[in-house]
């Protein structure tokens, strides 16, 4: 099984899009997306220096555009899983079929502008806490009035909040940790971003979202999201909610992902996956940074998709598990039953309580793919509705 990952803010490098503009149609596509995003993506990806592309309002649409531009040159129909880190989730949602590319770029432009504006309201920032006991690290972050904005796995938690609190954390770090101040505009993924979340929600409400055509993981809790409208709501909520990339990587392991491609600017997520999954069966990884990396990426897809060039087996009419736990199908439903969109067909018993499983299409319950008390992983197929398209 193969996953394609879309990186987030901080991964950008000056000139990283320059080689992609040699591909036919790439510059025109970026100019069209620039009109939607409200920034010059061609300039930002080729001529702009590090300081200019560090600006949140510019960086976010640039990263989403880069991921989508590169993915156009991959056989995405053979990819089973997509996920993105922070703003990278917009790219992942587009690649999963939830959003048109134009909607993802437009939302990235709004998100970047509004988060930059929220950062200007009061002095806030972020710091990476490396190493230490995870519980002690989280306790120290809370004790200083800060928030765990990113939990990236591999011994890395990013604290965010008021500058004074970050300075105290750096002065009194938890045992066996290093605290590194990050060069960012403010406290992303915390309540400080509430004005940006509200602004993004107002725009996102007008989007018509489709249900994902492949497994799409959410930063909110690492679960697979079945419904397009729910994913849009999660994308909005993520502006103030912590990024749980650690849980996304756990789901990649639970799914048995054997191959990973990170879209440009690649390297950060690949490194986290490599460190986090080294104890289990480590996936084969390709970092896609220039068109010269495309042959290796296409070869990885051919060898790890398991689909032999045909349409993916995970389609709109297969209901997948939203969480890890044990499956309890609805007692009154038998194969052959008529289902309506949104109908509850069972639930997943998790440590945090039951999570509903709903049909995201109407039709016949053709086949149960999991049964009473079966242990299931996020993204695992549970039922087939009306056969395959």
TrEMBL record:
A Pfam family this chain is assigned to: Acyl_transf_1
UniProt cross-references to InterPro entries, sorted A to Z: Ac_transferase_dom_sf, Acyl_transferase_dom, Acyl_Trfase/lysoPLipase, Mal-CoA-ACP_Trans/PKS_FabD, Malonyl_transacylase_ACP-bd, Single_hybrid_motif
EC class: transferase
UniProt keyword Transferase present: yes
EC numbers for this chain: 2.3.1.39
Domain Malonyl-CoA:ACP transacylase (MAT) span(s) in chain numbering: 5-310
Reactions catalysed according to its record: holo-[ACP] + malonyl-CoA = malonyl-[ACP] + CoA
Record keywords: Acyltransferase, Transferase
PANTHER family: MALONYL-COA-ACYL CARRIER PROTEIN TRANSACYLASE, MITOCHONDRIAL
Protein name in UniProt: [acyl-carrier-protein] S-malonyltransferase
